[in-house]
């Protein structure tokens, strides 16, 4: 009897609970920026049809005119069953400032056919606060600046504190160079570990370039990471171009042998790195790469010839190609300690390793690369400068 009473009380409580309001829950953040496009991502608490309105930032109010709606489509069909929204803006002009607003319309019911019953529409605010803004990458030139963060391992508050002094609006992008999470177990953890903090700091207006570390290859949700930082190629490793500078984002895989007990029988990184190596060979031979005014590499695990398998495999595969590719500089992390390896006969380009308590600020101009490694309180711990030949 008592059990029945509790069940009835529970049912009554469930029926009287107010339905959760439809809302935008995280973001927006920008990624995969090019000279003519960018991808805008955010989440809602319920499935929705979502779109972005964007316009060149000519100083006029966002309300001055109607704007084109950009949707996430798959083979011609707008996506309406998702809570993670990723809208690609295409055909933008290089080096141009845009402002944008995100919209989501709740899908209340969708039982059969295309009989979708829509609910409320929510949007980012462009009245009480300014619309979000970004600038597309330039098509030419070497002038660019960026910030590198790595090995945050879910310490979002430390990252926020570390970045307090940075004026992100001055930078073309922020490179997350691996191990932002310890392992990836679910969506909420990704937000808690570093995405929400990145959105609060910069990511709605300054794009993220994401380069996976070995820790992001772990966890039950690890295979979904790419959905949160999509690339047009569908691959983690990629070649990005900002002006006439080329950036190689190399995916390191794991650091121990694939059969290590820690990987639960899931690791197949030897084959993956060999496949990536074939891509790298083609990437450095491409006209874009050969004609670049500077060539920068990001690789989470340094090629410092340590004794661990991952580092050695990366070195054996990638170094002969990179040594012949006119690389100006490589940025790594992983060791949680600052390190600097000048170019020598074995590794023919300088390697800067950022620790886990600092960020790197890199400013490139036509004739030099200037690097500052900045620790807590904005203290510049190390500087390096390299001429661009
Ligand atoms: Fe690492």
TrEMBL record:
<feature type="signal peptide">
    <location>
        <begin position="1"/>
        <end position="19"/>
    </location>
</feature>
<dbReference type="InterPro" id="IPR039331">
    <property type="entry name" value="PAPs-like"/>
</dbReference>
<dbReference type="GO" id="GO:0046872">
    <property type="term" value="F:metal ion binding"/>
</dbReference>
<dbReference type="InterPro" id="IPR008963">
    <property type="entry name" value="Purple_acid_Pase-like_N"/>
</dbReference>
<dbReference type="GO" id="GO:0003993">
    <property type="term" value="F:acid phosphatase activity"/>
</dbReference>
<dbReference type="InterPro" id="IPR015914">
    <property type="entry name" value="PAPs_N"/>
</dbReference>
<dbReference type="Pfam" id="PF16656">
    <property type="entry name" value="Pur_ac_phosph_N"/>
</dbReference>
<feature type="domain" description="Calcineurin-like phosphoesterase">
    <location>
        <begin position="146"/>
        <end position="338"/>
    </location>
</feature>
<dbReference type="Pfam" id="PF00149">
    <property type="entry name" value="Metallophos"/>
</dbReference>
<dbReference type="InterPro" id="IPR004843">
    <property type="entry name" value="Calcineurin-like_PHP"/>
</dbReference>
<feature type="domain" description="Purple acid phosphatase N-terminal">
    <location>
        <begin position="34"/>
        <end position="107"/>
    </location>
</feature>
<keyword id="KW-0732">Signal</keyword>
<protein>
    <submittedName>
        <fullName>Acid phosphatase</fullName>
    </submittedName>
</protein>
<dbReference type="InterPro" id="IPR029052">
    <property type="entry name" value="Metallo-depent_PP-like"/>
</dbReference>
